[in-house]
Amino acid sequence: MLRKLTTHLFFCLLMLSVSAKTWAQTSEITGIVKDEAGQPLLGASILLLNTKTNEKKGIMVNGEGKFSIKGLSANVPYSISASFIGYVTKTIDNYVLKAGEQATLLIQLNPASTTLTDVVVVGYGSQKKKDVTTSIASIKAADLENQPISNAAEAMVGKMAGVQVSQGSGAPGGALSIKVRGVGTITAGSNPLYVIDGVPISNDNINTLNTNDIASIEVLKDASSAAIYGSRGSNGVVLITTKQGQNGVSTISVNSYTGWQSLAHKIDMMDAYQYAQMVLDSRNNSYTDAMESINRKNVALGQPVVGFSVNDNNGVRLFNTANNTNTVMPLEVLPYLQGQQGLTNTDWQDQIFRTAPIQNHSISAAGGSELLKYYASMEYFNQDGIILNSGFKRYSGRLNLEGKKGVFKYGVNFSPSVINEKRVNANGAYNSNGGGIVASALHYSPIFPVYNADGSYNFAQNSWSPGTITTLPNNTTASGNGETQAWNPVALAMLQKDDVAATRMTGSAFVEAEVLKNLKYKIQLGIDLFNSSEDIFRPSILPQSNTAGNPLSEATGSSRTIKETNWLLEQTLNYAKTIGDHNINALIGWSTQKDDLSGNYAFASKGFISDQIEFIKAGIVTNGTGTKTQWALASGIARLQYGYKGKYLFTGSIRADGSSKFGKNNKWGYFPSASLGWRLSEEEFLKQSESISDLKLRASYGLTGNFNIPNYAALGTMNNYGYVFGGTTPGVINGVAPIARPNDNLQWEKTAQLNLGFDAAFFKNQLTLSVDVYNSNTNNLLLDVPVPISTGFATELKNIGKVNNKGIDINLGTQQQFGGVKWTASGNFSKNKNKVVELGPGNADIIKTGSVANAYFITRVGEPIGSYYLPVVLGVFKNQAEVNAYPHYTDTQGNYDLNTSKPGDFKFKDVDGDGIIDLTKDRELVGNYLPKFTYGFATSAEYKGIDLGVSMQGVYGNQILNLSRRYFANKEGNMNNMVSSLDRWISESNPGSGQDVRANRAAKGSNGTTSTWHIEDGSYLRIRNISLGYTLPVGLIKKISLTKVRVYVSMQNPFTFTNYTGYNPEVTNRSDATTNGEDYGVYPTAKTTSIGINITL
């Protein structure tokens, strides 16, 4: 028994000794990662590679910058890499641990030159920035993290030279306008192509994308870089890459913020008492003018005027008396003129604008192994608009998977999103159908309340009722209303329903195989599915358009649905090999893409039994339409990238596109490009330079196209047409008739661009500089050209025009360390000059009207696209002597009229010098909406966990046609006016500012004509973001297993410095390049204050 027990005991001891020996053979590495100043670098990643077995282990440092990896094999070589965004990765090769060793490492990372050493995404691949030979702008995830933004385009504002991003509308979920190196088209679309994870998307509004998912945004600016996208590259290409998991590193991130939005600034409008006085002045001046007109008709004093009246909103009583005239006045203004206090004095801007909440909450997880890496996220975003009853909600998710096994690499990206949007009709004229809420708020008289005594909405300004005539002390009379029709803006916002529900799913899947050494085959399938529905309801209580005081006889409703499917199939072969000093990367591929769009629209204008039932099915459908369109694109691509000794660089590419959109004689287009680079810093004469860290010269030339035209523009198309048949009892038979003439030669607009530039870094990469100059010519512009009447058509779309854009882009950046303070700063400057070179046979001007009939735009050879073409105001007539000494107007019959102008009227320039002012002819090209230059600046500082960042952006030299000012500074006394109208001409002894006309009910002397008086300087400097954050000390968070916690407060758009008198100098409310730059009641942008938290586990 004792022997047996001894045997068992010996065996146990033997096993313990074996185990101890085994444990003793494993080793451990601990360490700390620090920055160049010796401070712990929180968030750095450590990756260990056993170069013998290819086994990998990864970990992130803790809140003190420390890491520990146990269970490592002894006596085998390891490769140890430390990396962090914005820093140069450091790798220790062939590190061998002894058995049982506990090694301790100190790893110090140095800041990367963000201009030269980053990896940037290019079309169908990526390159190190130092090897790029084209012009590409780039921002990374780190540029997005410290500011709460809801749209990916917001991250680009003011950050990229040559890329102008404008927020023309502040509507929740609204799209931003992006222009790359100016405007190169007149008829075709000017928006860039968007590519998300390699898949070109069909809808250029990227508001469905969660900005926390973005790893980088690159913009291909020159034709050489964009030529790989061929017929869609002329307007630039925006490449958005989403995040992927890291091998061996698992993280969970939570980002959350909540904030409050408010109107950035109000427009100063008159109060009720100021308004009443202007109403009186306008009518006094108006009827004095009418009296003189009557005198010219030889009407005797004191006699009734028969057959002649002054139109004052449906009712006037005008008699020729010894004291000129009895002025017809709105009865409602009488108490204000009498000075009664405590009367209604409504500020309509305060009524429609509100302080609105905004919030965003997202969570993401990333990690995995070489076999399968993952990135997953979910987001909820909710933004109430600053205008009543408007808002935007987004629910989004993402799952990105990528892995490698053997010779195969594979991946799937999948991102669904749901949008719920409450729209209001904020834009447009005060008297448009449905009413522009913003314009109505500025228009509506302050003497009227929002609600009647019974709580119903007040619609007094929608009617004119004679009322009782009251004689004032100065022998004027008050009667009726006399207001130009408008809708109660609060009622418009609250009673109309415009709800949009949309879903979108973007996704892609790929498999890549190394079929031979250095040769990889890749196949990718991409899809973009978009569905939306819009339901609009307008209750009968709201007044009908252009019907004074009359409510709708019926409620109206409409429903619209859109379904779009865009799919992509691409196959590529990529060969990459280094042979001695030669580096070769060659790509060939084939791509097919197809887009299917269908939609239905139904309108019901009768049959609704109640305003409470807001569904179109509750009414009788009186109109309906449907649409179905398609386009397809087949492409072949090829590219060669070559480098010799890392200093002589070449890239050449060509793409062939075949499109269904163009004529049968021009189905295929070919888009080549070539670029060269020379890294002078690698030459012996610069290698030892202490001041020049890196220097590269670049030159590129390429050809791109623009296929943003209607899908069937090249085809002869037909539409429904009613034909009358029969004799004594004819009937209308439904048939078809041609509406467009076919053009078999229709082809792409093509842009050829030359780009010269350099990238440089100085003083150990502390200062970076990038400069590009370019000259771009867009040929074959698509224009509607008149055709002989014998064809049965008025115009035909042809390729006949040419536009030139030339300019310069400059980027400058620095990174500095002052003791414990890290400081970075970057700035950019862009100047672009746009010029029309050709406009077809005869180079005839293209003259169009914008939102107002007499607001003309001109596109003329030698000038920028879409310039303003208006009468020129030289000043204001101060007295009758000035009037008598100046050319006058023609009357309605074209006769010379000496009595039209009065003191206090505008003095217009006699442009053609014929001695007669004819405002249909006396016009000049007087400005343009395109800026002379744009700029941006950003700076940030960090000290002991405290970070402060400021970014700003601006434009200079553009003009805005302020049509709001045309109406709300018209001094006609029929709608409210801006406070600036108090500086109007009153009399010869009181001329006011000398720059503003007299009040006049009938706008005599063409004072109401859109002119240079309505053009304003649109230059501005806007502080885009100010953020202050604090990263909690490690000691407070490490006990609960958190890696990083940052709390912050942020302000967006807090300050704007501009002379523009409207809401927003960024306004771009028209998509037509030839009639842009108008401001006519656009949804204003908001300033936002938010607080947030970023947590990393």
UniProtKB/TrEMBL annotation:
Signal sequence segment: 1-20
Keyword Transport: yes
SUPFAM superfamilies: Carboxypeptidase regulatory domain-like, Porins
Localization in the cell: Cell outer membrane
Topology within the bilayer: Multi-pass membrane protein
Gene3D superfamilies, A to Z: Carboxypeptidase-like, regulatory domain, TonB-dependent receptor, beta-barrel domain, TonB-dependent receptor, plug domain
One protein family per Pfam: Plug
Record GO cellular component, one term: cell outer membrane
InterPro entries: Beta-barrel_TonB_sf, CarboxyPept-like_regulatory, Plug_dom, Plug_dom_sf, TonB-dep_OMP_SusC/RagA, TonB-dep_OMP_SusC/RagA_CS, TonB-dep_rcpt-like
Region (Disordered): 990-1010
Domain named TonB-dependent receptor plug: residues: 128-237
Keyword Zinc: no
Keywords: Cell outer membrane, Membrane, Receptor, Signal, Transmembrane, Transmembrane beta strand, Transport
Coiled coil: none
First-listed, main subcellular location of the protein, grouped into a coarse class: membrane
Recorded family membership: Belongs to the TonB-dependent receptor family.
Protein name: TonB-dependent receptor
Source organism (scientific name): Pedobacter hiemivivus
Upper lineage: Bacteria, Pseudomonadati, Bacteroidota, Sphingobacteriia, Sphingobacteriales
